[in-house]
Write a structure and sequence with these properties.
5 strands; alpha/beta; Rossmann fold; five-stranded parallel sheet
Length: 120
């Protein structure tokens, strides 16, 4: 079973993600910075990374390029407070990626994790 990385600086969202993912019996690491996320990705193998678009030092294009080029086996899911339509307008280069809008539903996270595990 693959490990999941959550990159999020909001403690309530982190707690929610931890509850959802641990109930499904998956291992998970949490960090609150892009630098720490990239370091963890170099140390461990992740099948899935949930990444908050609103992290203070977020350089989304740099992070995505780093994951896309260096960590091909990690599926990237972006978490945003924007609606999907607004997100697609502002970041058209990310349209193919999975995007979860805040606030998210528990079942959305569960289904996404399950779908990712089925693909690996």
């Amino acid at each position: 079973m693959g490990k999941i990385l959550v990159v999020e600086d909001d403690k309530l969202i982190t707690w929610s993600m931890r509850e959802i993912i641990s109930q499904a019996r998956h291992e998970m690491d949490v960090c609150d910075s892009i630098q720490e996320a990239l370091a963890l990705l170099k140390e461990r193998e992740y099948i899935l990374a949930f990444v908050d678009m609103d992290i203070k030092e977020m350089d989304v294009e740099y992070f995505r390029a780093g994951i896309s080029n260096e960590f091909l086996e990690t599926r990237l899911v972006l978490i945003t407070s924007m609606t999907r339509n607004r997100f697609d307008e502002m970041f058209p280069m990310f349209c193919p990626l999975e995007v979860i809008e805040k606030p998210f539903q528990t079942e959305t996270i569960r289904a996404l994790v399950k779908r990712t595990l089925e693909l690996t």
